[in-house]
């Protein structure tokens, strides 16, 4: 970072607009944070530091400063339930906690007596509208063993010198533990993957060295709205910093606006945003009146036919190139402008990207790197690039990554980027890490003849939504089965935009209750009655109350069906055969996602959220016609 030009900046958006720091200022801040933390005798090498912070430049400062000080960062999402944050701080015995806002400290005050290792809380600044009396009250509410300071005060305690900074760097070792990143286990328990400096640095260097579209220097503008508590987002920010690129941290609500304003060359995203663009493409003709609707539909069909025949990474005929050139400057033009018009590379990760979305974007001339990885392997393991790009695949492994397919179809991985294990969870570590270093990914896959990996399903019970968040279905299902009204429950949603649920009622109990309510009708009719649906909605609401916002059930379906070992829908009494159920009830599952989610949370309340693309025409000459002849077109 020290050899990069000072014109490169890090920027994040707040209520007052964009705030910017040069890389020189970032390095200075990180060094002062590291030296400031060393000022405290109670904070020792290897101590854990909670980062309860939004994705912003201060997060990066605190993260790098702690790594330089040989401390271990534990990133936490501010929107996570308080119980989850308390659990991570307590299990890791965190001695320092950085927060984004002072208000994040107040809910933790009653929990501080149980966080016996905590010694220091760092807040970014004291709000201008906060009275000295209230600040003093917060200080008095802290235990005697805990001090609260601002980030600026921490930096001022540093006794900076070139020799002191050099001593910090010299003390670092590649095998030192760098971060503990928590992910949900199938049981619902949070497990912390332990990643070293070597894990992180090796993964980033390997990924960036094989991305030919990325260039060094401030002219490369990277935009991200992803939460930095995900190792995928952090890894690519580390890489952008090492390349001296200009970085912007947006947020889900404004990212589409910032794409058009900032015109980035690199965009870090999750599949859900790209899916929404694809959905907008599909419904665009419906916004027009005849005959323009038919004209636009024909234009879209022609462009889609070209895109679907786009031979990713292969030589194209002269005629095809000419047609595609025309489509990219007419029908696909607004699609490219939607992202600012300068995008060289989309980097999509965190979940699987549907093949049709990659086909559309690639045909439109937008390069897309679709990756596959795990937190337990420092994020990225393989991704599409150069000649190894094909829709529906996740490309080929990165340099340094060995992959194999086990007899049961599970993808196995071995590389220098694999974690050291789960923090204070030796049994769970032994289940996923073989003594010879091979990691069980829990995903099923297969390789094509030319070495491209296709993911075919899940061996583990965890799955990911298209927003990149893990879902542990079993705790949700077990909670619902506590009710006598529920025989079985199946959480669905792999690769989808939200969590859905199939509920198989206990018909004996339900019929008895229906008679007491004065409802006498066949079971199939009974399941659609508002009174009955409301009862099950109440059960779902009770379970949702204890879940993170992104994993709450947005829609469910009541189904009268037998689930037994004999019919293959149970593996054993009480254990669901998920693959068989997904196939048997595929139509019901699809129907959940074709309708508006019942009691969906507002988009701004979810984390991470993905914005809707604006209402945009798909034929670039259409706005000019509409502007020139407004009266005629309105008839």
Structural description of this entry:
This protein is α/β, with parallel strands linked by helices. Among the domains are: 164 residues, ANL, N-terminal domain (Rossmann fold); 134 residues, GMP Synthetase, Chain A, domain 3, CATH 3.30.300.30. It has 23 helices and 28 strands. The strands form seven sheets. A nine-stranded mixed sheet has the order 2-1-11-10-12-13-14-15-16, with helices on both faces. Helix 2 links the parallel strand 3 and strand 4. Helix 11 packs across helix 14. The protein is globular and about 75 Å long. 43% of the residues are buried. It comes from Vasconcelosia minhoensis LEGE 07310. Keywords: ATP-binding, Nucleotide-binding. This is AMP-binding protein.
What's the helix and strand layout?
Blueprint (H helix, E strand, L loop, with lengths): L8 E6 L2 E6 H16 L9 E5 L4 H12 L3 E5 L5 H10 L4 E4 L20 E4 L8 H10 L5 E4 H6 L5 H10 L5 E8 L5 E7 H13 L11 E4 L6 H12 L3 E4 L5 H8 L3 E4 L1 H13 L8 H17 L9 H12 L3 H5 L7 E4 L6 H9 L4 E7 L4 E5 L12 E2 L4 E4 L4 E5 L6 E2 L3 H7 L6 E9 L5 E6 L4 E2 L5 E2 L1 H8 L5 E7 L6 E7 L1 H10 L6 H4 L3 H15 L8 E6 L11 E3 L2 E2 L1 H7 L1 H9 L27 H7 L1 H4 L2
Parallel strand pairs: 1-11, 3-4, 3-5, 5-6, 6-7, 10-11, 10-12, 12-13, 13-14, 25-26
Antiparallel strand pairs: 1-2, 8-9, 9-19, 14-15, 15-16, 17-18, 18-20, 20-21, 22-23, 24-25, 27-28
Helix pairs in contact: 1-2, 7-8, 11-12, 11-14
């Amino acid at each position: 970072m020290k050899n990069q030009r000072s014109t490169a900046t890090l920027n994040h958006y707040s209520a007052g607009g964009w705030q910017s720091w040069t890389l020189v200022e970032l390095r200075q801040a990180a060094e002062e944070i590291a030296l400031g933390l060393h000022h405290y005798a109670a904070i020792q090498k290897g101590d854990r530091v909670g980062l309860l912070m939004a994705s912003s430049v201060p997060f990066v400062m605190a993260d790098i400063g702690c790594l330089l000080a040989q401390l271990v960062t534990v990133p936490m999402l501010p929107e996570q339930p308080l119980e989850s944050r308390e659990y991570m701080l307590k299990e890791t015995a965190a001695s320092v906690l950085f927060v984004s806002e002072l208000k994040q400290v107040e809910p933790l005050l009653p929990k501080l007596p149980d966080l016996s290792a905590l010694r220091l809380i760092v807040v970014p600044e004291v709000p201008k509208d906060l009275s000295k009396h209230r600040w003093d009250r917060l200080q008095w509410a802290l235990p005697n063993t805990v001090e609260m300071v601002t980030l600026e005060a921490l930096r001022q305690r540093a006794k900076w010198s070139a020799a002191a900074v050099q001593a910090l760097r010299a003390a670092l070792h590649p095998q030192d533990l760098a971060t503990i990143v928590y992910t949900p286990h199938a049981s619902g328990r949070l497990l912390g993957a332990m990643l070293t400096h070597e894990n992180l640095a090796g993964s980033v260097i390997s990924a960036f060295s094989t991305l030919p579209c990325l260039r060094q220097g401030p002219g490369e503008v990277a935009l991200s709205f992803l939460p930095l508590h995900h190792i995928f987002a952090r890894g690519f920010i580390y890489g952008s910093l090492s390349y001296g690129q200009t970085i912007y941290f947006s947020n889900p609500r404004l990212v589409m606006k910032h794409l058009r304003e900032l015109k980035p060359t690199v965009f870090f995203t999750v599949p859900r945003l790209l899916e929404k663009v694809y959905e907008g493409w599909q419904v665009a003709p419906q916004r027009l009146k005849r005959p323009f609707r038919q004209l636009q539909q024909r234009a879209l069909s022609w462009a889609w036919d070209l895109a679907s025949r786009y031979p990713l990474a292969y030589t194209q005929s002269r005629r095809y190139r000419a047609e595609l050139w025309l489509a990219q400057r007419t029908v696909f033009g607004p699609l490219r402008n939607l992202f600012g018009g300068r995008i060289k590379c989309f980097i999509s990760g965190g979940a699987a990207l549907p093949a049709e979305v990659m086909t559309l974007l690639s045909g439109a001339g937008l390069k897309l790197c679709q990756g596959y990885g795990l937190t337990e392997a420092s994020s990225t393991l393989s991704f599409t690039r150069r000649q190894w790009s094909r829709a529906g695949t996740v490309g080929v492994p990165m340099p340094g990554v060995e992959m194999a397919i086990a007899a049961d179809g599970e993808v196995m991985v071995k590389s220098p980027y694999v974690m050291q294990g789960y923090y204070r969870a030796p049994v769970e570590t032994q289940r996923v890490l073989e003594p010879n270093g091979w990691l069980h990914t829990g995903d099923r896959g297969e390789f094509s003849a030319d070495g491209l990996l296709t993911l075919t399903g899940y061996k583990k019970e965890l799955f990911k939504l298209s927003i990149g968040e893990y879902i542990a279905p079993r705790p949700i299902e077990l909670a619902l089965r506590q009710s006598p009204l529920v025989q079985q429950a199946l959480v669905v949603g792999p690769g989808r935009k939200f969590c859905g649920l199939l509920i198989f009622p206990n018909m004996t109990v339900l019929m008895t209750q229906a008679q007491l309510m004065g409802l006498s009708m066949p079971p199939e009719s009974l399941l659609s009655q508002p009174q009955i649906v409301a009862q099950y909605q109440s059960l779902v609401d009770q379970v949702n109350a204890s879940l993170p916002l992104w994993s709450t059930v947005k829609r469910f379906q009541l189904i009268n069906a037998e689930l037994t070992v004999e019919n293959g829908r149970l593996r054993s009494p009480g254990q669901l055969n998920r693959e068989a159920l997904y196939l048997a009830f595929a139509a019901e599952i699809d129907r959940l996602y074709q309708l508006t989610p019942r009691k969906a949370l507002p988009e701004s309340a979810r984390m991470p959220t993905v914005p809707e693309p604006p209402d945009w025409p798909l034929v670039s000459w259409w706005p000019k016609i509409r502007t020139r002849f407004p009266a005629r077109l309105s008839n």
